[in-house]
Amino acid sequence: MPAPSAPPLRLLWIKCGPVTPPNTGGRLRSCQMLRALHREHEIRFLCLGTEEADDGPPYAARSEFVPHRVPVRGSLAFVWRALLNLFSSLPLALALYRSPALTMRIRQLAREENPDVIVCDFLTPALNVPPELRARCVLFQHNMEAQIWARMAAAAGHPLKRLYLRLQCQRMTRCETALSRQFARVITVSEADSRFARENYGLANVAGHVPTGVDEERFRELRALPRDPSTICFLGSMDWLPNIDGMEWFLQESWPAIHARRPDLRLVVIGRHPPASLLSAWDGKAGVRFTGTVDDVRPHLAGCAASVVPLRIGGGTRLKILELMAAGVPVISTTIGAEGLPLVHQEHFLRADEPEELAAAVDWVLSSPQEAMRMSQRALDEVVQPNSWAHCAGVFLKLALPARDGRLQERCNKAANDAAGATIMPL
Questions:
Q1: What are residue 187's DSSP bridge partners?
Q2: Which of 1, 10, 165, 167 has its CA 20 to 30 A from that of 176?
Q3: Which of 207, 184, 211 lies closest to 36, judged by CA?
Q4: Residues 218, 322 contacting (CB under 8 angstroms)
Q5: Contact (Cβ atoms closer than 8 angstroms) between residue 11 and residue 43
Q6: For residues 104-122, b (16+ Cβ closer than 10 Å) or e, as one string?
Q7: CA atoms within 13 A on the CB side of 150
Q8: pTM higher than the cut 0.90
Q9: Rounded to an integer, what distance in angstroms lies between the CA atom of residue 283 and that of residue 40?
């Protein structure tokens, strides 16, 4: 007789900002993980912010949005909040999302529904999780936030900007360390982030990491298309500071030499909300084109001969690299851009950290299309295809559930048997 199916788990998933449309790396990871979990379990999604349109598959049995407004970056209201934050002990990135209403609702739902698992998605909502509930809550860290602020400070050119970012980094380090210690478990998105949390924050509650997933089927058709040697691309949200910094650096330091050698080469920057400064300086000039917000990135990736990921700032892992690899596009990335992913230089991608290295890597891919294609195939076979979102969701559940709770652990093992082998750290 077939074994009885495991009863679904009840998850309370807390996040700042919606997961749909999944048009940023953070939204995409959360949305795909939720959709995979939703197939087998009961998800209550509790969001600080407003609902946005989504035509894709459902990601929760119930979704609830606690109204909250964050000023638009660069607006007078945002600048005012940033100035006021100088007199606060909290980093601005957390202070903007303080919400007593969300705290009250979390406490109410935990009492009324008694979920099997409470997930705090990103550090951003962590201050709103009631202190008495943090000891039974999982903190899902997509990034080590203080690390990003440290890298932004190091890359800042203006002394006042660098001073402000260092102040924010110091505050974020204190808050990230203190908050992380209060949660039952911390789950990261890479072994490097887990190691960072243990070594730099002294955390003993890091359960492990969830691999970065990709919807390989969504990009399958693109792999059969011929490569266009006149087009390379960048893929990423252009309202995210690390992407802005990376493209400014690449366009100023690498692209002029590349374009001088290959005047017919085009660079397509695919990503929403590029800043006006970049548009005025580069859009439509020297072969550079910004797409702005697009409904679907695939038509813009179709046929691209190479992609560049010139990040100097960042944390966590870049889902866009796996999407590029799933589309069959050869990837050229800095060390920070490829950080946390199981990639080997010259086997799966080309690593280039200096402007002249980036230019040389672009030349190699365009001059050696057959070798570049073989590199892309290895990336697909060895990195992309083993990491479905169902697998990632299974690993997450095995790490999230307390080992001491035999009943929950047994249910998890039955529901996520494709993730066998994930290590659970007893608390």
A1: 140, 208
A2: 10
A3: 211
A4: no
A5: yes
A6: ebbeebbeeeebbbbbbbb
A7: 10
A8: no
A9: 46
The number of residues in the chain equals 427
Distance CA 392, CA 120 (A): 17
Return the DSSP state at 7: P
User: Which two structure tokens, joined as six digits, stand for 414?
Assistant: 């039955």
CA–CA dist 293, 357 (Å, integer): 30
Q: What is the pLDDT of residues 288-337, one digit of tens each?
A: 999 999 989 999 999 999 999 999 998 777 899 999 999 999 999 999 99
Sorted by where each starts, the structural domains of the chain and their CATH numbers stand as 10-213+388-419 (3.40.50.2000), 216-384 (3.40.50.2000)
- Using CA atoms, how far residue 263 sits from 278, 283, 382, in Å, is 20, 16, 35
What is the average pLDDT value for the chain, to the nearest integer? Answer: 91
- Give pairs for 153-161: CB < 8 Å, separation 24+: 155/245, 155/312, 155/313
Phi, psi of 216 (to 5 degrees): -60, -35
Q: How far lies 386's CA from each of 35, 337, 349, in Å? A: 18, 21, 17
Instruction: Render pLDDT for 157-171 as a digit per residue (tens, 0 to 9).
Output: 889 999 999 999 999
Rg (CA), the chain: 22
Tell me how far the alpha carbon of residue 421 is from its chain's centroid: 24
Spatial neighbors of 87 by CB under 8 A, at least 6 apart, are none
pLDDT tens digit string along 206-246?
Answer: 999 999 999 999 999 999 999 999 999 999 999 988 999 99
Tell me which of 314 and 386 has the higher pLDDT.
386
Strands (E), 277-317: 288-292, 304-309
CB 102 within 8 A of CB 127: no
Contacts of 242 (CB under 8 A, 6+ apart): 148, 151, 152, 311, 312, 313, 314
Whether the Cβ atoms of residue 400 and residue 207 lie closer than 8 Å to each other: yes
Give the sign of the dihedral formed by CA 101, CA 103, CA 105, CA 111.
negative
Q: pLDDT grade, residue 5 (50/70/90)?
A: low
